[in-house]
Design a protein that fits this description.
mainly alpha, two-stranded antiparallel ribbon, 3 helices, 2 strands, extended
């Protein structure tokens, strides 16, 4: 994620789930809030078992 200040943040799935779990509000409210805070959000989903097959 890139903050609107230009700072780049790399977060793990666990970090994201923790942040969402401790957010006081709905998921829609959380999504609206992070839209105001970040100018770029990229999500990559990897399945370890699938990756191992190709390595």
């Amino acid at each position: 994620m890139i903050e609107k200040t230009g700072k780049i943040l790399l977060i793990t799935k666990e970090m994201l789930l923790d942040e969402i779990t401790h957010y006081h509000g709905t998921l829609d409210e959380y999504m609206s809030e992070i839209e105001r805070k970040y100018c770029y959000i990229e999500v990559q989903l990897w399945f370890d078992d699938l990756i191992r097959r190709y390595l």
